[in-house]
Design a protein that fits this description.
The structure is a single chain. By secondary structure, the protein is an alpha/beta fold. It has one domain: NAD(P)-binding Rossmann-like Domain (Rossmann fold). It contains eight helices and seven strands, in the order βαβαβαβαβαβαααβ. It has a seven-stranded parallel beta sheet with strand order 3-2-1-4-5-6-7, with helices on both faces. β2, α2 and β3 form a beta-alpha-beta unit. α4 runs parallel beside α5. The protein is globular and about 50 Å long. The chain starts with 7 loop residues before the first strand and ends in a 9-residue tail after the last strand. The structure holds nicotinamide-adenine-dinucleotide (NAD). Nicotinamide-adenine-dinucleotide (NAD) binds next to α1, β5 and α6. Nicotinamide-adenine-dinucleotide binds next to α1, β5 and α6.
Length: 256
Amino acid sequence: MDLLKGKRAVIFGVANERSIAWAISEALHAEGAELAFTYAGEILEKRVRPLAEGIGAKIILPCDVTKDDEIDKVFQTLKQEWGSLDILVHAIAFAAKEDLSNPYVLTGRSGFHLALDVSAYSLVALTRHAAALMEGRSGSILTMTYMGSEKVVPNYNVMGVAKAALEASVRYLAYDLGPRGIRVNAISAGPIKTLAAAGISGFKEMLHYSSERAPLKRNITAEEVARTAVYLLSDMAGAVTGEIVHVDAGYNIMGM
Ligand code: NAD
């Protein structure tokens, strides 16, 4: 299928081949999209560059989202090389390790700022830049969230608060950009074993607990998230904006 033929997408959040952003990238590529990638720091470049080049990407740039100059540089390059943009994928989150294991009440000011800056504010900054390149095109923006924003998930802590801010941002950004034909949505995924997930204390138990209680009685795969991403980022979801779509084997609907 060529659902995304002729579309140009920039991907933030690939760390390695297990990253959800990588599964999404492969799916967008399979649907005909042209991709640009960013990586957070030199160490990750070694992982990201070969993956990106393997699917024909020519634009591969550093971007730590806490640095405005690096964000500016990415979008300046996209403007020079492509002139316009159709898709932004934001699959970025970070919190200090101790803030994902200590009780939430112990979260300090700097840990709170760091988690909210990287995991929530970055969507606002990247969306503002991306929207400037989406004028006159039906742009689509996607971010990744988790149910720890809605309900208490032990150890998810400040990341749950950051995801709540991220999800509210999805709605406000969708409102702001709707008149310009730009859609903003999020996927709320069930737990998947990735680098970021390894930082959450007790992640193994989260996997076990979810698979036992979800209506589908199993965990989900990054490929399943990627297929929903293709839907949300394509014209198939042309009237869908401001939504948080759960891809979690139904876990979130359960009361008991
Ligand atoms: P991952 O570790 O592969 O991806 C996280 C990405 O965030 C990495 O590429 C990392 O480089 C990037 N990042 C961290 N700090 C950054 C910074 N300062 N600047 C730029 N990039 C930075 O893990 P993942 O599980 O694929 O995570 C992707 C997204 O999916 C995250 O938002 C995560 O919260 C969300 N998510 C994950 C799960 C899960 O169980 N794995 C479930 C629901 C939602």
